[in-house]
């Protein structure tokens, strides 16, 4: 591939997997986040951006860890200046910053929710992405063909239904609108912007929640039958790598995409060889009442 990528929010989960998949394709990947070997963010987990960068390099790319709080404009500006100084270009920007799950209070009215938590979610999900795009896009548009991927939770169709917390609802629909707006702003520069969501993601945090590992994840299906449709982080990683390598990716400009949809389009599979279609499963089985096993959607 030979591309230069910035994965903003690459500490763990989907962000780490996307960085590694880009590395497997030969990219130089700047992996950013707030948790390093010396400091943990408010999320409180142990995964670090240094580990991510090492995995990128081990996969065949060049991984570069840069501690960055994407709510701090000076830090983001310095990050982009470093990429410009060291590489002189930016081909792929993945806006994956989040880290707000610990703030969630589902099924709580806006007048009852902890306001500080709600506003923090909006800052983490929307302000971070806007700041990063503001500083990174002038570098990305120097060369035609740049790609921006706004990572969220849920497709446009899925997020049409209320998500049970006003702040979370806005946080997860916002990146879809950002991608549409950026698609308009980038098209005159030969660029492409999309929003992308994983399905039921087997992140490190989710595996810990169920008390399983990636090797034993099916043991959690007894606790949540819908976990049978879960996908590994590698699935969305492969989705981004295929998008970045596609010379005709402009056909997706402004679209709301899922890992399952791109797997069908590009022909890749999850790490276990299956091709889970989480959102079709939720549409038909969870919300539509269809009696069908998750295996029918893998």
In short:
The chain contains nine helices and seven strands.
Describe the structure.
- Helix 4 runs parallel beside helix 5 and helix 7 (233-245) crosses helix 8 (259-266).
- Helix 2 links the parallel strand 2 (28-33) and strand 3 (62-67).
- The protein contains 9 helices and 7 strands.
- Strands 3-2-1-4-5-6-7 form a 7-stranded parallel sheet, with helices on both faces.
- The chain has one domain (4-201, 233-271): NAD(P)-binding Rossmann-like Domain (Rossmann fold).
- The chain is globular and about 55 Å long.
- The protein has helices at residues 13-24, 49-58, 73-87, 115-140, 166-186, 204-210, 233-245, 259-266, 278-286, and strands at 4-8, 28-33, 62-67, 92-95, 147-151, 192-197, 256-258.
- It has 298 residues and is an alpha/beta fold.
- Helix content is 41%, strand content 12%.
- The mean pLDDT is 96.
- InterPro entries: NAD(P)-bd_dom_sf, SDR_fam.
- This is SDR family oxidoreductase.
């Amino acid at each position: 591939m030979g591309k230069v990528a910035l994965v903003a929010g690459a500490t763990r989960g989907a962000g780490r997997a996307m960085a590694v998949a880009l590395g497997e394709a030969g990219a130089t990947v700047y992996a950013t986040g707030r948790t390093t070997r010396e400091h943990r963010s408010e999320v409180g987990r142990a995964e670090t951006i240094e580990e991510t960068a090492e995995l990128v390099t081990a996969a065949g790319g060049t991984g570069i860890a840069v501690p960055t709080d994407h709510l701090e404009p000076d830090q983001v500006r310095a990050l982009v200046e470093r990429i410009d100084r060291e590489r002189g270009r930016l081909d792929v920007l993945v806006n994956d910053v989040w880290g707000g799950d610990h703030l969630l209070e589902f099924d709580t009215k806006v007048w009852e929710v902890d306001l500080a938590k709600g506003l923090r979610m909006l800052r983490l999900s929307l302000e971070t992405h806007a700041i990063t795009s503001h500083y990174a896009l002038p570098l990305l548009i120097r060369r035609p063909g740049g790609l921006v991927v706004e990572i969220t939770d849920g497709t446009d169709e899925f997020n049409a239904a209320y998500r049970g917390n006003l702040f979370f609802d806005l946080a997860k629909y916002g990146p879809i609108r950002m991608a549409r707006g950026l698609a308009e702003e980038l098209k005159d520069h030969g660029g492409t912007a999309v929003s992308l969501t994983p399905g039921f993601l087997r992140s490190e945090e989710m595996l810990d929640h169920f008390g399983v590992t990636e090797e034993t994840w099916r043991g959690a299906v007894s606790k949540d039958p819908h976990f049978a449709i879960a996908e590994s982080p590698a699935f969305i990683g492969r989705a981004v790598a295929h998008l970045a390598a596609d010379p005709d990716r402009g056909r997706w400009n402004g679209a709301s995409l899922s890992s399952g949809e791109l797997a069908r389009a590009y022909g890749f599979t999850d790490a276990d060889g299956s091709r889970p279609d989480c959102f079709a499963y939720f549409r038909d089985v969870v919300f539509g009442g269809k009696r069908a096993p998750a295996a029918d959607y893998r």
